[in-house]
Every structure is written in C-alpha cells, then in structure tokens.
Amino acid sequence: MNPFFLLVPTLLLAASAIINIVLFRRLREEQARRESLAESFDNSRSLEIRLDAIEALNEYAQDALILVDDRCQVVHMNSAAHRVFDWDASVTPNAATTLIAVTRSHEIDQVVNLALETHDENEHQLSIGPNTYRLRVCPTQIRDHTFVMLTLTDVSELRRLDRARRDMVANISHELRTPITSIRLLVDTLMRSKLDDPERAQQLLGKIAAETDTLNQMAQELLDLSMIESGRAEFILMPVELSTIITTSVERLIEQARRKSISIEGQLPPRLQVLADEEQIRRVMGNLLHNAIKFTPPEGLIDIAVDLLDDEVLVSVTDTGPGVTADERERVFERFYQSDRARRTGTGLGLAIAKHIVQAHGGKIWVEESPNPPGTRFCFTLPLASR
User: What does the alpha-carbon distance between residue 279 and residue 360 come to, in Å, rounded to a whole number?
Assistant: First the structure.
C-alpha cells in the first residue's frame, strides 16, 4: 500500500486534535471571561447598592452635611443642609455654586478657608436664624484633591436645657437661702434673748418651725417633681367621680378661704367619671385652689366649672385676683417661678408639679385671662372614663 494513503488519516487525526485543543482553550477562556464579567457585574451591583444605602443614610441624617472643594465650591449637600440654609431642594449645586452663595455666611466661609490653609479640623458654634449650631470642619484628601466636609449639628435644645439647668440651680439656691437665713437669724435672736421669757422664746421657736416646714415641703416637692419627670412616679388610673375629687379639695381649703371672706362656687355634674389617679388629681386641684385663694383679694370669688368636650372633661378654676400677664402665662408652670420675688409665698413648685401630673394623664393644662377681667382662669383636661 502506498504510504501516502496512511499519512493522510494520521494528519487528519492530528489536525482534528489540534483543532479540539484550540477550541477547548477558547471555550475555557470564554468561560473565564464570562465568569469575570459576572463577578464584575455582581461587584458593580453590590457597589450600587452600597452607594444607594450611603446616599439614603446621607439624606436621612439629622445633621446638615456639605462637601466643598479647594475652591470653596459646593460638591454635595444633603437634605438637612437644604433645610438649614433654605436652599431649594430641586436645585442641585453645580460647579459654579460657591459655599457663600449657599450659606450666605461669611463666618462659615472664613472657617472653611482657614481649614484649607492649615489642613486642621476645627469646631465652632454659630447662630443661623433662631437656632444655634455646632459647626465641625474636616479637611480630607480624595485622589490627590483636597475637600472639606462641613457638619452642622443643631444644639439649640441642648443650650435651652443647659440654661434651664443653670436657672434651676440658681432658683434652688435663692429659694433655700431665704428660709435658711430666717432660721439662722431666729436662732441668733433666741440665743441672745433671756431664757426667762418663755413667751418670746415660744414665738421664735414657732417661726423656726414654720421655716423648717417650708424647707421640708420644698425638699418633698423637689423629690416628687423629679420622680414625675423621670417617669418613676406611679399613676394608677381608674374611673373616679370628678365631683368627689373637687369637693374634697375644696373642703381641705375652705377654712383658708373663709379667713379672707372668699366665696368658692361652682356647679358640678353628678356621677361624671374620669380616668385618673384620684390622689394626684386632688393634688392638682389643691394647688390651683391654693393659688386662687392666695391671689384673690378679700371678699373675692372663686368659680369652679366642669365642661364636657368630645372624649374628655375640661375643669377650670377662675378667680377675681389681679390676673396673669400674657408674657407670664407660659412661665407660671416653670419651677420656682414667682411673679413677685419680693413677696415669697410658697415654694414655686406647685404649678410645675400640676403640669406634669396632668400631662401624665394625657391631658393639657394652661392659664388664660378670666372671662370677666380682672382675674385668672386655670384650665386642665382629663380623659373621660368611658373613653
């Protein structure tokens, strides 16, 4: 047989094997490329999800966030920043939008320029409109470019609370100083007086006892107020007759009213039940009636009224005293607030305690002008038991 005919099949088999090997390699390469593309797609999808999450976090952040470049041009600002600087949310900052155009604040612009020069973080406090903000400026490098991140945190409420804390400490010091000074003077007088005058000694001891009672009452009311404000005071709400609460509160103070010839009147609907802690609401009524008696002149009148609203009851105590000015109507519920500091009567905590008790019942308490001025009308609401 001709050797040529044997060589042809061999060459064909070799060529087929080579072709199969090449095809297999190309198939493997294509498969690897597809796997690489799929992995890149997954990574890209994961990156998109992370970017969306970061964008959502950025938009829902309470702090105002602004990113500016080294030319003080705004690169990005979140929704909170739009609100703080009253910048139209539909207008996205572009390459020509400068920081001062957005903030309209030379102070912020100077702080950012200083950070770009020194590359140091710094904090400042500034006012924007009625609010106070803590501004934090942080320079950063992103791919060889300098950017500055601005964070503005609203600290208005913290400042208000801090001011209220300082006022409370000052008020406590002022209120404690008066009875303590009185006790000290009385003790000195008692020590210098002759012991053979028992009547005089008894008078001084009675005054000391009265000032001591004032201190004890103040300490107890401070403790009660702290317990109520912190939510540690227990309120047992149950259906109780409102007329019973009001009647017993009046009976406790009726003698005090008679000494000033003050009349207490009112029409109370019978069998009207509210959802309340009976002793705590009796305390509210006692505080309001005590204040009304204290500020109503002799021969005056105190009127107690009860009105039904949709699903609650409105209780009002109206006196014929000098009234409360408009700018004092919110402050009367502050701790230790007294309209006339020169005439210290009571601890100044009764209305603050009454406010928190009513709010703990889900009601509201306020003061307004008497329908027949002069005079004051204190009102508070309670939920109906049927609700």
Answer: 14
Residue 365, both tokens: 């308490």
The phi, psi pair for 54, rounded to 5°, reads -65, -40
Q: Strands 263-267, 301-308: parallel, antiparallel or unpaired by DSSP?
A: parallel
The tokens for 232 are: 């540690």
Token pair for residue 75? 């690169």
Cα separation, 173 vs 181, in Å, equals 12
User: Cα(76)–Cα(147) distance, rounded to whole angstroms?
Assistant: 11
Count of Cβ atoms closer than 10 Å to residue 196 Cβ: 7
- Identify any residues that bridge with 73 across adjacent strands, giving them in sequence order: 98
Phi, psi (deg, nearest 5) at residue 71: -105, 15
Nearest alpha carbon to residue 187 among 167, 207, 157: 207
Cα(262)–Cα(270) distance, integer angstroms? 25
Q: Which residues touch 264 (CB under 8 Å, ≥6 apart)?
A: 250, 254, 257, 289, 302, 304
Distance CA 34, CA 4 (A): 44
Query: What's the rounded mean pLDDT across residues 348-358?
Result: 87
Q: Is the dihedral of CA 251, 220, 288, 346 positive or negative?
A: positive
pLDDT at 344: 47
pLDDT in tens, 70-95: 888 888 888 888 888 888 867 777 66
- State pLDDT tens for residues 59-71: 667 888 888 988 8
